[in-house]
Amino acid sequence: MSYVDGFVAAVPTANKQKYIEHAEEASHLFKKHGALHVVECWGDDVPDGKVTSFPMAVQRKDDETVVFGWIVWPSREARNAGMEKVMSAQDGTNPMPFDGKRLIYGGFEMLFER
After folding, report:
1. Is 62 helix (H, G, I), strand (E, B) or coil?
2. N or C: which terminal CB in the chain sees fewer CB atoms within 10 Å?
3. Domain region containing 19
4. How many domains does the chain contain in total?
5. Does residue 70 form part of some domain?
6. SS3 40
């Protein structure tokens, strides 16, 4: 069964184009190293919550937009090998255009897909 890496971050709204360029470059690297699909989404209707929410989780500031994305891998093993290659290929030429300390991410075993 496929394996999914998911992530949520707050990106300065003024950096939207930089984020798109960063994500495009990164997506090619993920796919080169085994990812099946890379999906990037720019927040359009992401409400603040009273107890919890995407904006609260990433400590979104007034001048930021929440992004949400995921990467589908053939398996956890393929993800581990691919991510190792992606991380070792990073040379600082594609810095994150947002505060990476507020990035939320994790790996998920896929239960089903319809």
Report:
1. coil
2. C
3. 1-46
4. 1
5. no
6. strand
